[in-house]
Amino acid sequence: MSLGKHLRGAHVDHCKNTAGMPIIPMTLPERVSIPMSQHIGAPCQPVVAVGDHVKLGQLIGNTDAPMSAPIHASVSGDVVAIEQFMTQNGRVDTNIIIQADGKQEVAETVVPPVIDSRESFLKAVRDSGLVGLGGASFPMSVKYNVPEGSAEYLILNGAECEPYITVDHAAMLSYGKEMIAGMKTTMKWLGIKHGIIGIEDNKPDAIENFRKLLEGEKDIEVKALAHTYPQGAERVIIYECTGRVCAAGMLPINVGCIVSNVVSMLKLEQYFETGMPLVSKFLTVDGNLVAHPQNVEAPIGTAINEIIDFCGGTTGEVKKILLGGPMMGRAIPRDDFAILKSNNAILVFDDLFANRPDETACINCGRCVDACPMNLMPARLSRAYKDKDVDQLREYNVMTCMDCGCCAYVCPARKPLNFEFRMAKGLVQEDDKKRKEKEAKN
Amino acid sequence: MADKHTNLIVSAAPHVNAPQDTASIMRDVCIALIPAVSVAVYVFGLQALILTLVCCAACVFMEWATRRIMGRPDTTSDWSAMVTGLILALNLPVSMPYWMAVVGCFVAIVVAKQFFGGLGQNFANPAIVGRIALFIGFATQMSTWAVTPRMSSAIVNVAGADAISGPTPLGLLAKGSAVPTNLEMFLGNINGSMGEISAAALIIGGVYLVIRKVISPVIPLSFIGSVAVMSLVFGLDPIFQVCAGGVMLGAIFMATDYVTSPITNAGKVIFGIGCGVLTMLIRMYGSYPEGVSFAILFMNILVPHIDSLTKHVAFGKEKGGKK
Amino acid sequence: MEKKSKLSIFTNGLIKENPILVLVLGTCPTLALSTAAMNGIYMGLALTFVLTCSNIFISALKRIIPDSVRIPCFITVIATFVTIVQLVIKAYMPELDGILGVYIPLIVVNCIILGRAEMFASKNTIVDSAIDGLGMGIGYMIALTFMGCVRELIGAGTVFGMAVTVNFLTPFSIATLPPGGFFVFGCIIALMNKLTKGKVREKQENKCMGCPGSSFCSKSQEGGCDQ
Predict the structure, then answer these.
(1) How close A237 gets to chain B, by Cα (Å)?
(2) Strand, helix or coil at A18?
(3) Is residue C164 part of a domain?
(4) Tens digit of each residue's pLDDT (9 = 90 or more) over B137-159
(5) Is residue C31 part of a domain?
(6) Is A222 helix (H, G, I), strand (E, B) or coil?
(7) A355, A378, A410 — which closes off a domain?
(8) What pTM value is reported for the model?
(9) Which of A315, B36, B143, C90 lies deepest, with the highest CB count within 10 Å?
(10) Do the beta carbons of residue A118 and residue A246 sit within 8 Å?
């Protein structure tokens, strides 16, 4: 293996304007709209009906499918409608709309879970409604349900490599103790020996905070990571923390690792303590048009424009709104979508990042090759994609691409490289399918 | 109630870009060539400046005209034609007739670059192709080296007091005459092509490019390093060999042309060493006193093969095998 | 094959199916000999003679020659005429022999002659084949002479040995060297394609039928190339 000591990456401007700002709870919205599909896997079915009164933390959506996470009411109030419409993912989904009564009565079901075995631990993880909060929204109960003894490392991902976003940083400063407690519980019931907290070294106060809290601990260590994007990508953080190579198509558990976002761990611990499932999200609201950039805690299902208004509204003509950071975040066409479990930032911009500059010819400069954390050769892949040459795409391992966007970021010709590779992966998958069909026929 | 924003711009991530783009890279190369042009003007006089301007203007005009005739989008704003013009000019003797220089620009921009599809598609460095075409086509004019009073006494003495042209240091060496001192070679008090005389000025430009992260130092170092090693092997003075002729100009500005150099670092090392070794072999055994441009052209042609030899192994894949 | 008028068979070789510029056959002697306009005339005459004679003979013998050994038979016929030309040139024009040199015997394996024998003479009447050979030969001569003019003008400043620009402009001698040959050749083909766009496109519909390279050209399976 000719990988270096560290994987490559891009030096992206951090723009952490909101660093050090506390997380402020948002004023309660009048109504929330909670989609039933907030995770990878099977969507939930509503378990409440129009007219029902729901309380904070009450189960409102669930399913029997194993690949799923239950959904809970984020405000107390009345269910006024259950409708089908498009959510921020661009999918048409069932939405439960709750008119808030402002009382925030806590549901009777919200009691600390009793955990006395591995099974009860996993049940508690599922009941918490948690999904991977880093962005992938992989149901946490599925992630933690690993063969006994197969996990050696629990890696807490506090890299937060995306520019602008600072919520993980803020949470690490305020809730370090809870995160460590959650880690210990998880390690105890899953039989994991080592815990690693990986934090980019541009957050020295968070590293210091954890080091202080962990004094005398042998099982959990803090690892300072280089501040290059994308340190927080799952495969990258596994390599940087343990030196293990989680190749494309493998799950972290195949190399003995479980990776969790720091806020996921915090929410899990809070569920263990109080029984309150995941009903609110920490969000960084920033971008050059937000009047008062800050970190807020918003109930899931709050409309994005209300959150922006809470932060003082916008100061100019809005051209682009991103959910997530500027490297991997999604641009949304309207700002009245509801916030989901997986969101961690709302960035509002005018012309600054609105339009991608025009693409020019590749000059073969090799910047993309030097930036790719997966050691791919984007310039060659791009040529192969242009020719729709599936064999070349395979030869240059397009499936290993994790869509981090480093190549497109550094490209002086402004080619949308990772977007091309997303399309290219589709080509390869289609071709695989055709091949299989052919084989089946023979 | 909040104002609603609809019809927002939706585009694929990433939404940010590194500050460098093609035009800024090319502009940096132009800036890095300013010291070399200045030395040329100092040593050769105003004519050097005029010839440089003629080449730049001709290259940019031809780029514009060819793209227009071919019905393709205009690319003069990316500064690449300007770079070609500058480098080509620096490869010419100051006494070159202007129209011949323009012919060289035509070969560089139209034949070597646009006929192959424009920036990014050319198989060889346009400036080198232009230079070699001129060198073969107008051999006499391309090897008439002006002598001015600002040059080393070794050159002025051989040429004679009233002569307007004389042999270059490499020519002197081939004849077995006294050669300029290494300091003169380094600073540029010698004759030769306009841009290649001063190693010092070229190094300043090279350092600027490396600091600005426009080029990686791999190719220049391996190129110059292998020239030095080869001259030691042949029992020659490495400092003289490195400063003489086009090694510095070639290594820093022509071999590092992105389009025609390998994309990986391993490939760049092979490329640089290949250029250096070939340069010295041509100098020692070839019929020409100088071989930098032929060496680079030859290696340019090998680049696709070097690239396929030095492919990166993707994360999680074994070398050679498919996993 | 549909019946064509005698005139169209003749003119076919001049432009529409010009052996050099459209069919791109026999490029090796083309590049080597087109350094001067006069060479084009000499080489063109020699080739026209061989092509016409061999076309006539092959057409006459087409019923006798077995299909499986037709190529050796063609070559034998062609070689006969080439030897005649070569010996005549050696005997009466020794300077010319010095210029054309090895390219005269190489006419034996020149693709144009073999190509026309295979594509035309073995399928058509004797008169048609003779006219085709004449047309193709003259087309070859015109193309070669034109290329020679261009290269001579740029590379030596003369045309047919007469000074044009040599007295006031230094000739750009690379044009008479191999790289210049390829460059001029490419440019003339491009020009030809531009001028005969409509006619060349027509050929494409026949899916490379007229192209001698169709058996080994990968593009013929994809429905034709630009030529």
Answers:
(1) 13
(2) coil
(3) no
(4) 888 888 888 888 888 887 877 77
(5) yes
(6) strand
(7) A355
(8) 0.85
(9) B36
(10) no
